[in-house]
## 1
Amino acid sequence: MATPIIEARSVSRYFGTVVALKDISIAVHAGEVVCLLGDNGAGKSTLIKILSGLERPDEGTLAIDGQPVNFRSPRDAFARGIATVYQDLAVLPQMSISRNFMLGMEPIRKFGPFRFFDEAKAGAIAREELAKIGITVNHLKQKVGTMSGGERQSLAIARAEYRGARLLILDEPTSALGVNEAAIVLRHVIRARARGLGVVFITHNVHHALPIGDRFVILNRGRVAGTFARAEMDEAALNRHMGGGAEFEALQRDLVALADQLKTGATVH
Amino acid sequence: MTMALPHSRTRELPLGRRIVERPEVGAAIGVIVLWVFFAIIGGSDGFLTTRGIASYLNIAAQVGIVGTTVTLLLIAGEFDLSIGSMVGFSGMIIALGTTQAGMPLWLALLCALAFAVLYGYAVGMLVVRWNIPSFIVTLAGLFLLRGATIGFSRSIAQQPYIGGVKNAIGTDPLQYLFAGKLWESLDVGFLWWIGLVIVGAIVLTKTKFGNWIFAVGGSPSAARASGIPVARVKIILFIAVSVSGVLLAAIQVLSLGSADSFRGQGKEFEAAITAVIGGTSLSGGTGSIIGTAIGALTLGIVRQGLFFAGVDYDWYQAILGLLLLLAVIINQFARRNVSKS
C-alpha cells in the first residue's frame, strides 16, 4: 500500500492522572476518508489536536509521507499540508465572502510604492474556488453572516484546500447542521476525496459517517476500540462499537424499563 | 436574473437598503440635521460666518485626529483610555524640552515621538503577551501619565503650566507644520485631520493590513488560524494611537505657545464617542474611519452650535451623552440584519 499522508504511531497523551489517549495508531492516505468516531470524552479532540500540531504526544510519533515529524504549532502542520477546520469555522460573519476567503493571503496590487488589497482578484479567486465546490455566490461583497451554516462550513473547507492542504481534518463539520445543510458538507467531502485529498472526518453521527467513510476508527475511553473497512460496516455494527457495545444495549434496556415503569404509574426512584 | 441557483440562498438587498444600513449614513444624516438646526437657531449669531465655520472645523480636527487612530484600535477589539493623558504628557515633553532643556524643536518633537512609540509598544505587549485587558492597562496609563505630567511640571517649573514655548523656539520654520492658519481662522490642524482620515480610510478598506484589523477584532481565533500576526497588528495600532496623541499635542502646544498639565483631559472619551457615533462597534470587528470623521464633525458642530446659540457650555456634555446613546441605538437596529442567521 502507498505511504500514508499522515500516520500516528502508538501515540499516547496524558493530562496529569488522566489517560486521554493510549497507544493510538492511525493512518490516512491520499484519496481516503477516515471517519473518527466516538462518544464525548473518547479522545477524538485530543487526537486531532495532536494531528494538527496544537498538542504534542507524550509517547509515540507522527509521520508525514513516512518521515517522522515534530509539529511545534498548527503553522508547522499547515506547512506540511495538514489543515484543520474547527467547529468554530474560522470565518468572520461581519466580513465579506471574498475577504474571508482570502484572509491571511490577500492578493496585492502595487501602485508605485504602495501596496493595495486586490479586491477584484480576491473576488475572482473566491468565486472560482467556491464554484468548484458547487456554491454559486451572486454577491461576493455580501457578509459571510448571511450564508447558511453548511455554506459557511464549505467555505472554510474550500479555503483550507485552496491554501494547499493535502489532508483535511474536519472537526464535527456537520454536528450543528440540519439534514440539508449537512448534505452540502458531505457532498463536499466526497468531492475532496475524488480530487485526491485525504480527509479525517470527526463525528458522533453514524448517519453522516457511513455514506462517506472508507475506513472507520472507533475510539472509546482513549483507546482504539476498532478499525473497520467500509465493507465490514453497517449502521448497527457501528452503533454497537461506538456506544461501547454491550454498555449501550444495557442502557437501552434500562431506558425501556424506566419508560414502562412510568407508564404503569409505579414509584420512580 | 438567470436561473435559480442550487446552493445560493443569498440575495442582493435593494440599493436603498444597502445605503441605509451603512453605519456612516445614519451619522451623516444626523450631522446634517444638527447643522441645519444650529444654523437656524444660531446662524444670526455667527454660526454661519467663516469664523464660526472655522471654529467647529478646528474642534472637529482636534478630536478627529485621535478619533481616527482610536477607531482603528477599536475595530481591532482594543481600547485606549490613556490617549488624553498622552496628549498632556507629550505636550509637556515638547514644552519642557524647548523651554527648560534648550532643545531645538525637532529634537523635542522627536523625544515625544520616541516616548509615544515606546509607550504604545509597552501597552501593546502587556495586552497581547500578558493578556491583561487593554481597558485596565490604559486606565493605569491614564492616571500614570496624567500624574507624571503634573508632577514633572510642578517639580521643574513649580507650576502645572509651561509657557514661553514661542520665545524658546523663535522663528523655527518647523512650527508652521503644526501651528498657524490655513485660511482665515482655520488651523493647520484641519489639514492633518483630513490627511489622517484619508490615509486611515485607505489603510482600513483598501489594504491587507486593514483586512487584518477587521479580522483581529472580529475573531482573534479565526485571525490566528488564518496565519494573521494578531499580536503585531494590535501593537502597531497601540503605537499609532499614541503617535496621534503626539501630533495633537504638537498642534496644541505650538498654536498656544504653552503646555498645560490638564490638556487632553477627556479626549479618550471624546475619541471613543466620535467613533461610536460613526458606527464603530466597541466589541470590535466593525467600524468606519469616514464615520468617525462625521462623528468628530458632529462634536464640533454641537459644541460651537451651543456656543453661538448662547447656551451654557455645561449643556454640551449632557447633549453629547444623549447623542452617543441615540447613535448606539440606531446602529443596533441597522446592524441587526447582518448578525442574524
## 2
Amino acid sequence: MMPDIHYAAILPELCLVVFGLGHLMLSFTVREENKGSLAAMAILILAVAGATMIPLWNHPVVTFAGSYAVDNFALFFKWVFLLAAVLAILHSGSYLRQEGMEHGEYYTLLLFAVLGMMVMASARDLMVVYVGLELMSITFYCLVGYLRGRLGSNEAALKYFILGAFSSAFLLYGFSLIYGITGTTSIAGIHTFLAAHPEAMAAPLALAIVMVIVGLGFKVSMVPFHFWSPDVYTGAPTPVTAFLSVGSEAAAFAAILRIFVSGLSGQSELWTGLVTALAVITMTVGNLMAIQQRDVKRMLAYSSVTHAGYILVGVVVGGSVGSATVMFYMLSYAFMNVGAFGVVAALNRTDGREGSNLDHFAGLAKLHPALAAVMLMLMLSLAGIPPTAGFFGKFYIFMGAVKANLIWLAIIGMLNSAVSAYYYLRVAVYMYMREPEGEPQVMVPVSMRWSLAASIIGIFGLGLFPDAVLALARASAAAF
Amino acid sequence: MSGPIPLQWPLALSALLFTLGVVGVLTRRNMIQVFMSLELMLNAVNLNLVAFARHSESITGQVFVLFVFTVAAAEAAVGLAIIIAFYRNKQTLNVDEFNLLKW
C-alpha cells in the first residue's frame, strides 16, 4: 500500500534536501578562486524553495497521516527562516574568506538547518517536532564550531552541544510522558483526548509540561535556561550567530505555539502562570545583564534573551491574536537582529584587531558614516522607537496583552523596553560622540552591503506598513 | 510468577536512570563521562516510550524509539567530533578548563 503523501506540499523541503546535497557534491569541484559562487548557489536554492511555497499559500494541506501541516501559519514561519538564511549567507562569504574557511559544507549545513526549522514549523506530531528540532540543533552544533582552529569556536560548540543535548533529553522525557498520558503523539489527538478527559492525570501532565517548557525554553534562551546563549553567541562565527539568534528562536516559537496554544489550549491553567512568570523574569534578567556588557556581540546576545521575554508575552496572550503578534515580531526580529550581528561581522574583520568591544565602535561615524547610520537605525529598531519594525512588534504584543486584561504584564514589558534603550543607544553614543582610536580602515564588502540594505528596507517597510503585514499574520494564525 | 510486568516498574527504572543521567551531566568533570550521562538520559526516555507503547498496545511509542535511536547516533557522531576538535586545541577534556568564555 502506498502511503498517502502530498508531494506538492513538501516541495520546498524536498528542494532543500535534493539541492542541498547537490550543493555539497558540487562544492568539491569548485576551484579556490570561484568559491564565491557557493554562496550565490545557496541563495538561489533558498529562493527556489521560497518560490515553491507561493502556490501553497491559502491551500492548507495536512499530510503524512496528519503529522505534517502545510498551512499559512507554517508558510509564514518558513519565509521568515528563508529570509534570515539569505541575509546571513550574504554576511558569510567575506567573513569566511577572511578566516580562510570558505568551504561548501558551511552552506550545506546552513541549508539543512533551514530544513530542520521548516519541519518544526509544519510539525503536528511530537515525533516530527523532535526530529525537526534535532536536525536544526545538530547542524547548528557543527556551524557554531565551524572555525575549528579557534578555541573560542570549539568551546562554544562544546557548550552548545552539551547543554543542547541535555535540554532536548528533558523535552523528550516530557514528550514520552504526554504520550503515556494521552496514548498518542499527534498534537490534534492530544487536544481531543484532553478535551474528553479534562481531569486526566493532572500531576504527571504538569510535570510533562514543565519538562517541555525546559526543552523548548532552552532553544528560545528563556531565563533560567539562557546560560548558553551569551557564550555560544560570542564564540560562534558572527554570521552563524546572526542566523542562530533568529532562526532557532523562530522555529522554537513555532513549535511552542503549535504545542501550547493549539494542542494544550484546554489545559491553559497548567502552563500560563508559569510562562507568564518566565516571561517577566526573562525580559528583566536579559536587560540587567545586557546593561553590564561592554562587548557588543555579548550585549546583543543578552538583548535576544530580552526579546524572547517580550515574545513570550505573545504566547501567554495566546489564541490567534497572540500568535499573530508573535509572527509579526519574528519577522521584524529577523531583519533587525541579522542586521545588527552583520554590522558586528563587518567591523570585526576590518578593524585590524579582533573583537567586538564597544571601543571598536568609537568614532565609527567618522570612519564609515554609512555603516554607523545603519547600526544606529538597527539599534533604534531593537530599542523599539517608531517608525521602525521593532516599535510595532512590541506595540502589537503589548496591545494584545492589554486586550487580554494583562495590563500589568504590558506595563512591565514597556518598562523593560525603556531600560533597554540605554544599552542600545550607548552604542550610538560611542559611534557618534567618541573619537576613533587610531585610523583603522573600515571597508564593507558588497554582499554585506546588500544584506544590510535589505535589513534597513525591512525595518522601515514593516514600520511604515505594519497593518498589512499584521493582517497577513492574523490570516495565517487564524487557521492553524 | 505470571502476568505482565506492571507499568510502574519500567517507569520507576526509567525515572531512576534519567535522574542518574542528570546528576552525571551536572557533576562529572570529564567530557566523555558527561557524554555517557547524556546517552543514559536518552535511553531512559526510550524505556519510558517502550513501556507506554506496551501498556497502551499502540505502536507509536516503539516507532518513536527508532527515531530517538537514529537522532542519538547522529548526535554522538557530531558530539564526539566536537570533543576531538576541542581536544586538539586544548589537550584536555576537563570541563573546568572551559574558561575562555565566561560560563
## 3
Amino acid sequence: MHDVNDPLHLGNRSWQSRLLTGTGKFGHPDTMLAALEAADTELVTLALRRVETGTRDDNLFGPLQQAGYRLLPNTSGARTAEEAVFAAQLAREAMGTPWLKLEIHPDPRYLMPDPIETLKAAEQLVQEGFTVLPYVHADPVLCKRLEEVGCAAVMPLGAPIGSNLGLETRTFLHIIIEQAQVPVIVDAGIGRPSDAMAAMEMGADAVLVNTAIATARDPVAMARAFRDAVRAGRAAYLAGLAAASPQAVASSPLTDFLDAGANG
Amino acid sequence: MSTARQTHTEQDIIKVSVQGARHRLPAGQTLSDALTELGLIGTGSQSGGVALAVNQEVVPASEWPQRTLVDGDQIQLFQAIAGG
C-alpha cells in the first residue's frame, strides 16, 4: 500500500505513486496497460509524432485516459528550443494537459539533453502556463537555474536514455537532491529495481522508468518489482539510513564470556 | 477571393500541403472538410490524441470547422504515440 501520509507534491497536485512510467517499447498495448497497472503508476509519458498518411499507430491516448492515468507528454524529437515549444503547444492540444516533460536532445547517438536549449525553452513554456518537467543531465547548476525559471520539477538522468546502466551520475544526483526546492525525479538509465530503490534511498522524490520495464522478459512482473523497489527506497529514506563506517562496528556486545571458564 | 464564377477556374482551386504532400482543393474549403476529404480524420467525433498546425501554428480542434484554408497553407497533423 502507498503511504497516504507521504504524498508526492508535484505541480498543482498530490500523487500517491512515486513511480512515473513511460509507454514506449512495449511489445503490445495490452502488455503496456497491464504493466502500468502493476506499477501502480499515476503519471505516464507519451510522445507525439507526425501522422503518416495511410498509417495510424495504435491509439494509446484513449485507453490511457479511460484507465484514469494522468498524461505527461514529452517533446522527444525536438532538437532546439523553438521545436520544443512547438511540440509542447501541439502536445497540450492533443492531450489536453499543460503538463510537459521537456526534452531536447539533438544528438541521436547518446541522446544527451541540450542544456542551453532546454533552459531557454523552459523559461518560455513556464510563461505560457505549462507545468514543465525538464529532462536534463545531472547538472546541479542547471537544475537550480531551471528551478529559478519556474520548472515544477527537475528530471536529471542516471545514465543515457534506454541504457539500463543505472545511477552513473550518483555523485551529482546527491548534490541536486540536496539543493533542490522542487521535486527531483531521476529519469533515464534506471535499469534495475535496485537502481530505482537506490535513487529513492538517496532522497529522490520519484523516478521515471520505461525501458527497464517495457523490455523485460515479463514486463508486468518487472513493473511490480519496480513498484515495490520505489516504495522500499522511499520508506528507507524516510526511516533515515544508518551511518556507514569503513570499520566494523559490533552489533552484539563483545564480552569475554568464552574466556571466562579458562580464567575461572 | 470568392468571386461569383460559374465555372471552375484556377482561381477556384487552392494548393495546400498536407504532411508535406501537395493537394489541390476547392477554394473556400474548411480545415474540417479537407481533413475528412483526405481521409486524415473521420467525420464526426474526434478521436482525441491528435493536434494540428497550419503554417507552424497550432489550430485548436474547436476551430477546424470555421478555419478556411487559403492557397499555400501547410497543414501538419500530429498524434500521441508511445514514448518515454
